[in-house]
Amino acid sequence: MLGLGAENFALIKFLLMKRIKCEITICDTKSLKELTAKYKYLADKKNISWKLGKDEIKRLDGFDVIYRSPGWPVADPAIKEAVKLGVKLSSPINLFFRLCPTKNIIGVTGTKGKGTTSTLIYEILKASGRRAWLGGNIGIAPFSFLDKIKKNDWVVLELSSFHLEDIRFSPYIAVITNIYHEHLAPADPHNPNYHKSVKTYWSAKANILKFQNSHDRAIINRKLKKRNLKYGHGKRIFFDKSKLVSKLAGEHNKENIAAAVLAAKSAGVANRIIEKVVASFNGLEHRLELVKTVNGSKYYNDSFATTPESTIIAINSFKEPVILIAGGAEKN
């Protein structure tokens, strides 16, 4: 297990629960002190060993398979050398697709808007009476609910470019909200993955379409049509801006809603249910979230706007004068 993040941790717990006979080695740059809570949970498990610290993970050969955490660079020299020596490279999300009991999977990616869009789709599906599950980059590890999924359930996955750069499966319904420049430099020492160029970033995002067949659906922002994303064989459906009544501010959220509406319709949900859920949906934290009104001034938290493009879009969502408070880590 390369990186003991949320997804690999959930995968390990799943393997233990199912009593899968295997030897597990946890490899991470973090120290035992930094992994205290997770270590306490796993410390007494006899089939688990540990390789912690940068010096311990310079060699990854000797394993049958490596499950890479999304935050771990595919281009890591140790991974490349291990693959060259015959070690299979996979990830929790690849294994989830392979084991998932239902084929009713909706995957959502994009530089921005994927969390809002994924959650709105999930809420619409639930309101329609379907059993639905939400996971992925939204903060819920898919393996935490895999054993509860039934054949006719629906699964909505928010998928980052780091999930998709080595994906070997595509969802039945794939959604691309938008693509801007992001993740072109490491932003966090404990999440060092990044893309070496805009081209590799775009390719990673477009991989969500790569394994679709003619029965699948690809729902794509019309602004990306000129990019001519020649991936997979899913039926292309392009969206613009929704005209439905909504509480969400901003023109970009009209696009997010349009994407969610098309995904829900592709899943067979009736218009009246879609319209009702869209009208009542309050959005997510940190995405143009109205925090408070003081003396007639409204304060919005849009801290998920971590690119110039998304910040400009947020500013343009208002006709009133805007005072912008900005900061944070450089993300190129």
From TrEMBL:
- What Gene3D superfamilies does this protein's entry cite? Mur ligase, C-terminal domain, Mur-like, catalytic domain, NAD(P)-binding Rossmann-like Domain
* Keywords tagged on the record: ATP-binding, Cytoplasm, Ligase, Nucleotide-binding
GO cellular component terms?
cytoplasm
Annotated Mur ligase central domain residues: 108-225
Q: Could you mention a single GO BP entry for this protein?
A: regulation of cell shape
Q: In which pathway does it act?
A: Cell wall biogenesis; peptidoglycan biosynthesis
Location of the protein in the cell: Cytoplasm
Q: What is this protein called?
A: Mur ligase central domain-containing protein
Keyword check for Nucleotide-binding: yes
Q: Name one GO molecular function term.
A: ATP binding
Question: Which organism is the protein's source?
Answer: Candidatus Wolfebacteria bacterium RBG_13_41_7
